[in-house]
Write a structure and sequence with these properties.
Blueprint (H helix, E strand, L loop, with lengths): L8 E3 L7 E2 L19 E4 L7 E8 L12 E9 L5 E2 L7 H4 L7 E2 L20 E9 L11 H8 L3 E10 L1
Length: 168
């Protein structure tokens, strides 16, 4: 039996699990930074992890005409396992930060642009799911990475998944 202290997990210094997503990471309100991604840290990568991929979605996004369709906020792939997290405001700055951060690739969100797009909330109480995949391989997804492409590619390579939920 593994205990919680050695399970693969994803945390944010600024968000408790099922805690509130601070306003500065959304597109509204005082202090909103528009493209400011929250800081993330992960622990206890599964043995054999070669790369990490992250998908962040609003899992309560409403489609007025139908069932709930998650809204993709951030897609990140090819995160080297040497990194222990992503700093606040990482989105769009990988090259600038250099080193292992320069390998990280940001995919397109549902606004069809790469990087973090903090949601503008039509209503509150939405859950944002941060889902981190530990993979046994590096993915080569070409230039345009999307959530669907990523989820298809990770299918046979997932060694572990860690989830953090934040509430808007």
């Amino acid at each position: 039996m593994s205990n919680a202290s050695d399970e693969f997990r994803l945390v944010s210094p600024n968000i408790n699990h099922e805690g509130k997503l601070p306003r500065k990471y959304t597109d509204e309100g005082q202090g909103a930074q528009k493209k400011m991604s929250p800081p993330l840290e992960w622990y206890n990568l599964p043995e054999g992890t070669k790369s990490l991929s992250l998908v962040v979605q609003d899992i309560d996004a409403p489609d007025p005409n139908g069932p709930i369709v998650p809204w993709v906020i951030w897609v990140v792939t090819n995160i080297p396992p040497t990194l222990k997290g992503l700093p606040e405001g990482f989105s769009g700055k990988g090259e600038e930060l250099g080193g292992d951060y320069a390998h990280v690739k940001e995919g397109n969100n549902d606004e069809k642009v790469p990087g973090w797009r903090g949601p503008t909330m039509p209503s509150h109480g939405h859950r944002f799911e941060f889902r981190l995949f530990a993979l046994d391989d590096e993915l080569n997804l070409g230039n345009k990475v999307t959530k669907d492409k990523l989820l298809e590619a990770v299918e046979d390579h997932v060694l572990g998944e860690a989830i953090l939920i934040a509430i808007s």
